[in-house]
Design goal:
About 20% of the residues lie in helices and about 30% in strands. The strands form two sheets. The chain has a twelve-stranded mixed β-sheet with strand order 11-10-9-1-6-4-5-2-3-8-7-12. The protein has a two-stranded antiparallel ribbon with strand order 13-14. It starts with a helix and ends with a helix.
Amino acid sequence: MPAAIQGKVPNDSLFQSTKYNSLRTISEAEAAVPFDKDHDRYDLLSLFVKHRVPSGISLRLVHKHFDAVGDEVMVFQTVECAFAPKLQIMRPVRPTETIPLRGLHYLVGESGVLEPYEYTTTPGPDMSSHSAFLEDFVRVVVERGLQQRWGLKLSLDGGTAYSEFEVSEKRSTIMIPLSVELPPIEYERSVITDWQVSPRDNYISGSNCIESRSGGHFGTGGNCLETRSSHYPATSGEVEVHLAGVKLKYGTPAYHAVRSAILAL
């Protein structure tokens, strides 16, 4: 089992930006194989059932949000909010020894080994008892040439679903728990990016990406939104906060959640 799955990833083993930038965008990943004809997904999910994989471990559509520059890597971090549940952000980070990074999203590399391509600062699941699952997963991916299509998400946060929004000016994303009510946003299409297996062995989507008519992505269950213009809130006082062109009502959980997330970028 790769050491990167077990804990901190050494800085000299981090995913190179040139490799990261070659990954497909969400729209390119969707176009590669129509989801209604993607039998590989079901075969890979059957391995989750076979090996009784716990929640928090998901099948992940391999994709990127923004390019990395130089030695940057994309890192997911938790943000505390006084008036809403904990949030998540993803942003480009230049690694240092003071920021321990753990792999969150994995793909199967050219050598046939799982490699983390996006990271987190939070602890992850103990995979020491799931070697057989990881071996089966890698074998199927390599045999079918799915290295750029399907990977894994390894998280302890299996019970929380998010609405994820891209903030292009910061090359970052903000993730708001679905328990926070957000205003309705019109969208053009929806792309599911994460799949899990329920306790009853049903295949369920854990993440979803919807492209809004305002030029971005929005969805339910850990989804993704990109806005062409963002309004950044000040650090204090009643200021306007917009989400995909929609003004959020001051004082609501959605207002505080989006404001806290953007300020943390």
